[in-house]
């Protein structure tokens, strides 16, 4: 990292690159993302971009992890604001925002693009479809006022079904896609509550 950047400048550049990357993904899809355009958007050279992210795969992975962390932080804030655990309506609202977000990679990518993304990630990193078991355990244990007999594996499977529904949307009836997403969210809530 060049010495000319203060820590604040580095942080601002990092955030700016993440935002520029999302703008490209949302507007043009996975294959539209160009490192040169991201660097240009924040006023740095392409080589400087690589001092922040060793590869395009590392960059996309960082974007996805930041987006996931934002969703988790939002859920945690809502739980605190509610003064305890969230009920069915609070969880429904969060699931709907998460699954309807323009930054949901499963809405942006199709199954082939998603496979391309996963292959581009560094080997030691992965991005499970939708949620991983730790997130579900956290929701069940600390966030939601769930049924005592909740089937965590069914919740995980339903969340993965949501991801697959969006990734393979070209095989589905487009007029019913959002109703299908809503039905899977309700099925998830039925398992939780």
Automatic annotation (TrEMBL):
**Residue stretches making up the HTH tetR-type domain:** 11-71
| Pfam families in UniProt | TetR_N (PF00440)
Coiled coil spans:
none
InterPro entries in alphabetical order: Homeodomain-like_sf, HTH-type_TetR-like_transc_reg, HTH_TetR
Keywords of the record, alphabetical order, are: DNA-binding, Transcription, Transcription regulation
Q: Which residues bind DNA?
A: 34-53
This one is known as TetR/AcrR family transcriptional regulator
What broad taxonomic lineage does this protein's source fall under?
Answer: Bacteria, Bacillati, Actinomycetota, Coriobacteriia, Coriobacteriales
